[in-house]
Amino acid sequence: MNPRELILLSPYRLPAKDSLMIANDDIATWCNGYSALWHPAVVRLAGGPPRVGSPYDHEQPSPEHIYAVPDSPPLFLPDDWEQRVRDAGAIAFHVNADRDLTLAGLKEALLARGEAVEETARLFDLEADRVAPFFGIGFGYVVVETLFEAMDHENLVPTQELWQDVQGAVAALLGPEPEAFRDRLKSAAERLLG
Question: What is the pTM of this model?
């Protein structure tokens, strides 16, 4: 299986240079969708960090993609878009302002695909204190990325090395020494600070 690309479909990006008024439900949905793409079960399948993509650029879903599809604001996608996702071999899940419902939808979408079901189920059964640091790294990543954009500065985060650390943390959670995941995430966090 090829590494998947993680896409949050949204007309919004975090505001970097221009102010932007986003409704509470819209921003909660955006944050839940973006952070869900940092869940260890998804990180394990991906080749790099999530990115935000315009729905118009993904009317024809691409193979090997995982799409987070917000309920708010409503996206304008073709009526048969979900069938197109299945036909392309992609995965899509719906995102809303409730994090638990969003993660339940993600779990259902990944398990329905039938790839590495045992590992996926194990990662979704992790205690919250093992999953939350992944969400924190994801939040830090998008904030730092937005700051570089706001400063018109090249993004200096060593993304490839950071992603290797995050994936190493997932491997540790599935391996014989699950506590080692903290060291890998600490290394990822230090790369964000660097």
Answer: 0.93
98-148 confidence digits (pLDDT tens): 999 999 999 999 999 887 789 999 999 999 999 999 999 999 999 998 888
Residue 8: which region, alpha, beta or left (left: phi > 0; alpha: psi -120 to 50)?
beta
Rounded Cα–Cα distance for residues 16 and 149 (Å)? 6
E strand or H helix that includes residue 6? strand 5-9
The three-class DSSP label of residue 156 is coil
pLDDT of residue 147: 84
Region of 116 on the Ramachandran plot (φ > 0 left; ψ -120 to 50 alpha; else beta) = left
Return d(Cα 188, Cα 166) in angstroms, integer.
Answer: 6
SS3 (DSSP) at 74: coil
What the block records as the tokens of 194 is 């660097």
Asked if residues 52 and 16 have their Cβ atoms less than 8 Å apart, the reply is no
Residues with Cβ within 8 Å of residue 158, at least 6 apart in sequence: 191, 194
Q: Is the dihedral of CA 83, 89, 93, 94 positive or negative?
A: negative
Name the stretches of the chain with pLDDT < 70. Answer: 1, 14-21
- Is 20 exposed, middle or buried, given 0-12, 13-18 or 19+ CB atoms closer than 10 A? exposed
- For tokens 């909660």, the residue is 28
